[in-house]
Write a structure and sequence with these properties.
Helices cover 24% and strands 23% of the residues. It is α+β, with helices and mostly antiparallel strands. The protein folds into two domains: 77 residues, SH3 type barrels, CATH 2.30.30; 203 residues, no CATH class. The longest helix has 22 residues. The protein is globular. It binds zinc ion. The site of zinc ion (ZN) has 7 residues, from helix 1.
Length: 308
């Protein structure tokens, strides 16, 4: 799931007198070690208030508010551990079914690509394509070093958050194995591209949240299908440019909005994505289209919907 951390939102159900152990008052206490299955990220409870708990997975990001129905103890609590195991097994079965959509030969080729990657940086870990990986040559020169780990359970070769000049790449390599799409279809890529160019022309360095999916080309080499889930600029943007971008991208409840830069601090604004745009040096100005059920979005037929 995109933006799982630290941008997550969970809704809390009404408190129940009867029901599972984890929904009983007092079940969670400050200092408990918990997680949110099927994820296994280890977090610490820092406050409890009714059926909400504040959990913190890293002090730098501060606590997030989560409903008790979504949290389970990681250890020392049988009901929580049993339920987490059940959720983990269900998720695994779901992912296996999902993976089975791709032909064996695609998955074998994908495994070879991933095994051939070379680490070129850390924090976050960055990759380049291995010398013998049969990707199109431009992918080495343009994408090497920008590739980060991606959490999509699809044929993704990496995720890119750097301010790569995607419209230029599309002009130069659109006939050489590059396609760019937004499968969420709330806003199509040509519109996002227009906004991207508006930001560039105003002197900003826009970036996409881009998953680089493996695309097998007819000649046996590998191209890139880039899945766009967000457009962003570090820091605030001026009112004129903001207005132009909003005119293109819309101003529905969930966007535009700011979100937090990883380097920012606990007192920063922009924690709550339901709030309007808050220009602040410590925030990212961004539009984010991902969300909902990502399985069923990232499947092979989506490759046919490309438009550019
Ligand atoms: Zn428990």
């Amino acid at each position: 799931m995109k933006f799982r951390l630290p941008f997550r939102h969970r809704t809390a159900p009404a408190a129940a007198d009867t029901g599972p152990a984890w929904e009983q008052p007092g079940h969670f206490k400050s200092g408990d070690t918990v997680h949110m299955p099927p994820d296994s990220v280890r977090e610490t409870v820092v406050w409890v208030e009714g059926d909400l708990v504040g959990v913190e997975f890293h002090p730098r990001f501060g606590p997030s508010s989560v409903g008790t129905s979504d949290v389970r103890h990681l250890e020392g609590c049988e009901p929580c551990m049993v339920d987490a195991r059940r959720q983990g097994e269900e998720e695994q079965a779901r992912e296996e079914t999902y993976w089975a959509q791709w032909p064996d030969e695609d998955r074998d080729l994908y495994d070879r690509v991933m095994e051939g990657r070379v680490v070129v940086g850390d924090r976050p870990r960055r990759y380049r394509f291995g010398d013998r990986t049969p990707v199109r040559e431009w992918m080495r020169t343009e994408l090497d070093g920008h590739l980060l780990d991606d959490e999509m359970p699809s044929l993704t070769m990496g995720r890119i958050w750097d301010p790569v000049d995607w419209p230029r790449l599309e002009r130069e390599y659109g006939d050489d194995g590059l396609t760019i799409i937004n499968p969420w279809e709330t806003v199509l890529w040509p519109t996002i591209r227009s906004a991207f160019v508006v930001l560039q022309q105003a002197g900003y360095s826009p970036a996409l949240d881009a998953s680089v999916e493996m695309d097998r080309l007819d000649d046996g080499t590998i191209g890139a299908e880039v899945i766009v889930s967000a457009l962003m600029v570090d820091g605030p943007i001026d009112a004129d440019t903001y207005g132009q971008a909003v005119a293109l991208l819309g101003d529905a409840t969930e966007f535009p909005h700011t979100w937090l830069r990883y380097e920012s601090y606990p007192d920063r604004p922009g924690r709550d994505l339901s709030q309007p745009y808050q220009p602040d040096e410590r925030n990212v100005t961004g539009w984010n289209w991902s969300g909902g059920d990502w399985m069923g979005t990232f499947n092979p037929p989506a490759q046919e919907t490309t438009s550019h």
